[in-house]
Design goal:
Length: 200
């Protein structure tokens, strides 16, 4: 529990958590990814889901690579986010097996011009990276707002799909995050130690 950071602004929390994340060795990251995957695989919503959006870990993020392998083995469809070519500030999703490019942030993603895109509403579960979280579903990302804009429709529609799942190290948990009006809350956060169900 990182209570001393609770009252700090988002930029300070982001800076502190990224520094902590990047101090982990590759071995520590892989062990955390394995521990986290065991918790994910035991969740009923994971067992039911067919279309899973994951991400390629960057900047010390919790790596979903083990989840990806296990999901593929179970015959689930793996999709990755790309920066939307037509809707600025939004994400689109494509299968992880097609042509890849580097986006403007230097992150590898499916080439949105050479892959069949899948609408966000067709996804069952979206695994999202984060910098910090609280147990009520608050998520602090890198500050670009891409996930918030892409899944804004969940606020208005009353839909419960896709389910938004944050992946994190346990030390990324804070008591309470400062929340903005545009923030889209997570359904659940899974760490290498616990599952925090923010919504029933």
């Amino acid at each position: 529990m990182t209570t001393e950071y609770d009252l700090l602004d988002r930029a300070s929390i982001r800076q502190h958590m990224r520094a902590q994340r990047n101090q982990l060795s590759p071995q520590q990251q892989l062990q955390a990814a394995r521990n986290l995957s065991q918790i994910v695989l035991s969740q009923p919503w994971f067992q039911r889901a067919q279309n899973l959006a994951l991400y390629l870990a960057n900047d010390g993020e919790m790596d979903p690579v083990v989840i990806m392998e296990k999901a593929r083995y179970r015959g689930k469809h793996i999709l990755l986010p790309s920066l939307h070519p037509a809707k600025s500030g939004h994400l689109c999703f494509a299968k992880d097996t097609g042509p890849m490019i580097q986006n403007k942030f230097g992150i590898c993603e499916p080439d949105p011009k050479r892959n069949s895109l899948i609408a966000a509403k067709q996804l069952d579960v979206v695994f999202m990276p984060l910098v910090a979280f609280d147990a009520s579903g608050g998520r602090l990302g890198m500050g670009g707002g891409y996930y918030d804009r892409t899944f804004e429709f969940l606020k208005q529609s009353g839909l419960n799909k896709p389910r938004l799942i944050g992946l994190a190290h346990e030390f990324q948990k804070v008591e309470k995050l400062p929340v903005e009006s545009w923030d889209i809350p997570l359904d659940c956060i899974i760490t290498d130690k616990n599952a925090y169900n923010a919504k029933p």
